[in-house]
Amino acid sequence: MTTMTDILIIGQGLAGTHLAYQALNQNKSILIIDNKHHHSSSLIAGGLINPIKGKRLVPLWKEHEELEKALYYYKYIESIIEIKIIRSIQQVRKLQTKETLNYYSKKKNLAPYTPYLNKEENHHHYPELKNTPQPLIKVDHSYQVDTHTLLKNSQRYFQEKKILINESFHHDKLTISDSHIEYNDIKARNIIFCEGHQATQNPLWKNLNWENAKGNVLTFQTKYLKNNFYNLGKWIAPTPDKQFKCGSTTEWDWRSSLCSKENYDTLTEFLSTTLSQKYTVTAINSGIRPILKDRTPIATHHPDHKNVWILNGLGSHGCFLAPLISEKLLKKL
Q1: Conformation bin of residue 141: beta by default, left when phi > 0, alpha when psi is -120 to 50
Q2: CA 215 to each of CA 39, 41, 64, 270, 331: distance values in angstroms, whole numbers, following the listed order
Q3: Which of 15, 91, 131, 280 qualifies as a cystine partner to 194, CB 3.0-4.6 A?
Q4: What one-character-per-residue DSSP string does 167-194 give?
Q5: Which pLDDT tens digit goes with each residue over 174-206?
Q6: In a 3-state reduction of DSSP, which class is residue 122?
Q7: CA angle 151, 254, 167 (to 5 degrees)
Q8: Exposed, middle or buried, 291 (CB in 10 Å: 0-12/13-18/19+)?
Q9: What does the DSSP 8-state code read for residue 312?
Q10: Pairing mode, if any, of strands 186-193 and 210-221?
Q11: Is the dihedral of CA 164, 167, 171, 173 positive or negative?
């Protein structure tokens, strides 16, 4: 007789991974199906949790407690997989436009912003960067998540617990009833799709207005950069193996999952005009992420099936949003 599982999770990217840990922490039984798709955007992300976002310098969180909660969940995962996946990092940001500089001038001394926005930096403090007319500032309370380490070590942990099935999910084999779903020999009270860009091929969500964006990230070596997160129009982030990543370019109309020469040249030109010293490119990777036309994350059940859920579209702030939205979704089950 098949045992009933509480939750079947489809996809073990950033969203599916957080959802799995939190469900296990609540003593829910789970199974995960993941096909190890190599073009997940989570694997190549810079991993920045940025307290101040966008050209208008808007706070990422409404309350500081939201940051504390996100950090708690990352520390909880660290305690399970016994490896560090998040750290505080100094963010160096260039104020790219007059509009952003004006917002900075208005907000830097206001209470909601003073914990994050520092005074303008002297370019001489950053000899690793070529001098530019745009001012630099430090952004405090920034964090970097090592998404690759998180996902790969979580995969190992889930495999050891025998709750991860490495195969493609076939939607035509899914049967949905009011009380549960069935898939092959699996029965579950709920199914949650965390498929990333593969959600665009899911017939259950065909009415959602998806776009698939391909992002391209370079990995390079240099002796001269500090262990900062450089937010300079494009970003430069340190990696655990003492290299750096640079990203990203975005392609909307693409046919190949590989980075085009045009986008490769865009990234190398950025590095050449930004860094004051030599660098060596060691890899180029591309990742695909789904984006809803309104750019809003989605965490809801299917209109016709209350036990069929989706968690997707977390976007560039996924490292911050994934633990918080996973918590909210689980409360709805």
Answers
A1: left
A2: 10, 7, 30, 15, 33
A3: 15
A4: S---GGGEEE-SS-EEETTEEEEEEEE-
A5: 999 999 999 999 999 999 999 988 888 899 998
A6: coil
A7: 35
A8: buried
A9: E
A10: unpaired
A11: negative
Block residue for tokens 């939201």: 66
Q: Measured between alpha carbons, how far apart are the two ends of the chain, in Å?
A: 25
* Residue bearing tokens 């009011």: 178
The span from the CA of 140 to the CA of 117, in Å, is: 7
CA distance 207 to 18: 26
Q: Residue 155 is encoded by which pair of tokens?
A: 């995969």
Which residue has tokens 């950053």?
Answer: 126
- Name the one residue in this structure whose structure tokens are 């909210």: 328
Answer for the pair 307, 190: CB distance below 8 angstroms, yes or no.
Answer: yes
- Global pTM reads 0.93
Q: Where are the beta strands (DSSP E) in 97-157?
A: 117-121, 136-145
For residues 115, 120, 123, 125, the Cα torsion angle rounded to the nearest 10 degrees is -40
Alpha-carbon distance 137 to 118, whole Å? Answer: 6
CA distance 5 to 44: 32
Domain boundaries, the chain: 1-47+146-209+294-333
Residue 38 confidence class, pLDDT cut points 50, 70, 90: low
What is the distance of C-alpha 111 from the center of its chain? Answer: 29
pLDDT digits (tens, 9 = 90+) for 198-216: 888 899 998 888 888 888 9
Task: Select from 330, 307, 51 the least CA-distant residue to 179.
Answer: 307
Place of tokens 């939750």: 7
